[in-house]
Amino acid sequence: MVYLQYGKNILRRSRFLNSECVLHHPVFYAGQGVRYRKLEVILTSNVDKLGKAGETVKVAPGHFRNHLMPKLLAVPNIDKFAYLISEQRKIYQPKEVEEVKEVPKTEEDTMKEYQKAARRLENAKLVLRRFIKIDTELRSPVDKDEIISEVARQLGVFIEPENLQLTTPLSTLGEFEVPLRLPKSLPLPEGKVQWTLDVKIRKK
Predict the structure, then answer these.
(1) Pairing mode of beta strands 137-142, 170-172
(2) Burial annotation 36-61 (CB, 10 A radius, 16+ → b, else e)
(3) Quick one: which of 129, 193, 189, 128 has its CA closest to 155?
(4) What is the sign, positive or negative, of the torsion defined by CA atoms of 155, 157, 161, 165?
(5) Which tens digit of pLDDT belongs to each residue from 1-16?
(6) What's the pLDDT tens digit per position in 137-163?
(7) Is the pLDDT of residue 69 over 70?
(8) Which of 81, 93, 84, 89 is nearest to 39 (CA)?
(9) Which residue, 16, 71, 62, 13, is CA-closest to 35?
(10) What is the pTM of this model?
(11) What is the spatial distance between Cα 51 and Cα 109, in angstroms, rounded to a whole number?
(12) What DSSP string runs through 37-88?
C-alpha cells in the first residue's frame, strides 16, 4: 500500500501528467481506489438477481470470468453472440397459445352424435375370443362391463351400463343380438323394432 501511495504521488508531481490525462490501466484504478469498468454481457439463462435470458447486463469482469462464463450463463455482448442468442430464442421460445372459447353443444349437435354412434353400433360386430370348458360352454362368462369395455376399444364408442340391456352374462360360443336402450328420438333402422349390438364369441 505504501508503494502504491508513493507511486501515485510521483505521478501527480510529474510534468507528463496533467488534469486532462485519464488512467486506463486497472493497476492505476486500483491505486486510486476506483473500481475498474464493468463488462456488458448477454445472459443465456435466467440468473437470480441479475436478469432473464436474452437480456444485456453489466457485470464485473471477475464475476463473468469466474462464474458466468464457465457455467455458460452469459456470453460477451458482441454482434456474433447477439445474433446467435436472438436466433435461438426464435426457435426455443414457446409460441403464445391462443385462447379457444368452448362453444356449448346444442341439442341438435348432441342428437347428431347419438345418431353417428348408433349407426356404428348397428353396422359393426363385436368379436370376443374366449377359452371353453366343455363343448361350447365358456370357461368365464362375458358380462355387461366386459362388453362395454370392448365396445370402447374395438368400435371407439363409449356407452353407459344403462344403454346395454343384458340381463344375464353370455356363457356359450355363438352370435348374439344384445338389445340397446337409446333415446327414442333416434329413428330405428328399416325393418327393426329396436337397436341391437351384434356380439360374436369365438373359441380362443
Answers:
(1) antiparallel
(2) eeebebbbbeebeebbebbeebebee
(3) 128
(4) negative
(5) 444 444 445 445 544 4
(6) 998 999 999 999 999 988 888 888 898
(7) yes
(8) 81
(9) 62
(10) 0.46
(11) 51
(12) PPEEEEESS-BTTTB-TT-EEEE-HHHIIIIITTTTSEEE-SHHHHHHHHHH
Work out the number of other CB atoms within 10 angstroms of the CB of residue 152: 12
* DSSP assignment string, 138-166: EEEEE-HHHHHHHIIIII-----GGGB--
Q: Are 134 and 203 in contact (CB under 8 A)?
A: no
53 neighbors 43 (Cβ within 8 angstroms): yes
Quickly list DSSP for 83-144. Answer: HHHHHHHHHHSPPPPPP-PPPPPPHHHHHHHHHHHHHHHHH-EEEEEE-EEETTEEEEEE-H
Count of residues for the chain?
Answer: 204
Q: Is the dihedral of CA 43, 47, 53, 56 positive or negative?
A: negative
